[in-house]
């Protein structure tokens, strides 16, 4: 365990690195994340050496969870075989790139706003434009994921958003920036319905670990984008950042092509499975409760992604490189929590605890803590206090991301996971349309403080809706189509 002296020594070293330049900051971010992981690993040792080993090697855990013999997991062998470790990791990388590319405009926001002369409201419209096409595309992609080849659906989506990212580097004003954001929304709308359709193949006791591909990728995307984007912008400017990000995403299509034979493998007894129509899904009360808390999570996450960089630079006076460091800390904590939550919840369920209770109460408690964390981030003045609340809030964000998708998969079942996730994500991502614009208007008229309080209030509203609307998490029996 890290003692007080060690923490003070590391903190002193931290200050020296902060003053040495950007590479010192990168070292600091890596050191903090490493310290967090070492501390969490030692805490897990109270459950035995084996527990710690599982935590420090999440990839091994993921492989073991998805590939061990079926008899040992009480799950049919064909089900395990349809979700290989390679496919799972590649889906996670796609989700990570999804968030690297969509968040690039936020990392470059201080430079883009100054160069293009955008107000906070104008910038809010540019961020929001992504969701004008992203939300309807989630509905379309959810239906397509249950109907056609997920391989071709995912390939088309990745190709479109990669090109839109690359071309954003050529934009010269608000109109062209909005057009590229609209195109990116079309491509990225495919990712989550398709990914959730694939992860729904996992057995329930391993669903949390499988969804590390989604939750971990979602959390790592902003982290990787912030660190890489900050380094690129410092050396070359904001336009080359978009060129590089778009080109790297296009390269993802090469390994995706190599595993194409694994993607569309039919589920066992798929011809016997009853899938829900959109009408049945929309008439399900728990769908609306899940959509409400998804809206909450999306609003809160995009408040951070879209506005935290600007808040740190414009309201708190941090430099661009300091902003990169602080936002990277947030995303590092989010990534760590995404992995921990998947592993630990699956372990609790494997020991006999109710999947419903484990995931439901975790969501309620963590979102409540996150609401208080958001308020604190907007109020604290010292850097140590800001770091504390950023990390605590990020842990809550990261853990809950996986729950949003694993709970949806539990409720919908594998045959309907695409439709359900499409509807839930579409409704939830309406926050991406309204949130940036509302926040921009508030910032222009009243400053950042009220925007933080509104975000916290929305989080609490989502928690109440979920607690009332989803009293128990169990598979829905869809029955015959009407």
Automatic annotation (TrEMBL):
Record's keyword terms, sorted: Membrane, Transmembrane, Transmembrane helix
SUPFAM superfamilies referenced in this protein's UniProt entry, alphabetically: MFS general substrate transporter (SSF103473)
Domain Major facilitator superfamily (MFS) profile: 87-474
Gene3D superfamilies tied to this protein: MFS general substrate transporter like domains
Main localization, broad class: membrane
Listed GO MF terms: transmembrane transporter activity
Topology in the lipid bilayer: Multi-pass membrane protein
Compartments (UniProt record): Membrane
InterPro entries: MFS, MFS_dom, MFS_Na/Anion_cotransporter, MFS_trans_sf
Regions crossing the membrane: 22-40, 78-100, 121-145, 151-179, 209-232, 238-257, 287-308, 328-349, 361-380, 386-408, 420-439, 451-471
UniProt keyword Transferase, yes or no: no
One Gene Ontology cellular component annotation held by this UniProt entry: membrane
Name the UniProt record assigns to this protein: MFS transporter
Provenance organism: Glacieibacterium arshaanense
């Amino acid at each position: 365990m890290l003692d007080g002296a060690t923490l003070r020594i590391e903190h002193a070293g931290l200050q020296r690195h902060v003053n040495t330049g950007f590479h010192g900051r990168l070292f600091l971010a890596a050191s903090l994340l490493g310290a967090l992981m070492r501390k969490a690993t030692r805490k897990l040792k109270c459950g035995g050496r084996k527990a710690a080993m599982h935590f420090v090697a999440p990839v091994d855990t993921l492989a073991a969870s998805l590939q061990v013999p079926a008899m040992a997991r009480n799950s049919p062998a064909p089900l395990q075989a349809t979700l290989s470790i390679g496919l799972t990791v590649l889906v996670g990388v796609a989700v990570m790139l999804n968030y690297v590319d969509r968040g690039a405009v936020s990392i470059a926001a201080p430079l883009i706003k100054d160069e293009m002369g955008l107000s906070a409201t104008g910038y809010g419209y540019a961020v929001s434009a992504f969701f004008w096409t992203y939300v309807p595309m989630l509905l379309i992609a959810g239906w397509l994921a249950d109907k056609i080849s997920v391989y071709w659906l995912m390939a088309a989506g990745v190709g479109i958003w990669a090109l839109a990212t690359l071309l954003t580097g050529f934009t010269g004003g608000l109109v062209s920036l909005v057009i590229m954001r609209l195109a990116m929304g079309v491509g990225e709308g495919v990712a989550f319905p398709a990914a959730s359709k694939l992860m729904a193949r996992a057995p329930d006791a391993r669903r949390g670990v499988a969804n590390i591909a989604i939750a971990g990728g979602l959390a790592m995307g902003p982290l990787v984008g912030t660190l890489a984007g900050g380094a690129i912008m410092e050396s070359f400017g904001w336009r080359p950042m978009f060129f590089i990000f778009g080109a790297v995403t296009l390269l993802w299509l090469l390994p995706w092509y190599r595993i194409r034979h694994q993607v569309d493998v039919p589920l066992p007894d798929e011809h016997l499975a009853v899938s829900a129509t959109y009408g049945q899904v929309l008439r399900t009360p728990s769908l609306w409760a899940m959509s409400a808390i998804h809206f909450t999570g999306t609003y809160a996450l995009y408040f951070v992604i879209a506005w935290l960089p600007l808040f740190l630079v414009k309201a708190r006076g941090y430099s661009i490189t300091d902003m990169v460091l602080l936002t990277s800390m947030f995303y590092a904590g989010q990534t760590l929590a995404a992995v921990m939550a998947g592993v630990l919840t699956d372990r609790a369920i494997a020991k006999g605890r109710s999947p419903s209770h484990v995931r439901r109460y975790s969501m309620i408690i963590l979102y409540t803590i996150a609401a208080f964390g958001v308020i604190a981030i907007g109020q604290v003045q010292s850097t140590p206090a800001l770091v504390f609340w950023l990390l605590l809030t990020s842990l809550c964000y990261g853990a809950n991301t996986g729950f949003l998708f694993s709970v949806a998969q539990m409720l919908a079942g594998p045959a309907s996971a695409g439709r359900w996730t499409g509807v839930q994500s579409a409704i939830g991502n309406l926050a991406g349309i309204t949130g940036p614009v509302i926040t921009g208007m508030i910032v222009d008229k009243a400053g950042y403080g009220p925007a933080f309080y509104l975000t916290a209030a929305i989080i609490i509203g989502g928690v109440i809706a979920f607690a009332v609307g989803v009293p128990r998490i169990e598979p829905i029996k869809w029955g015959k189509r009407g």
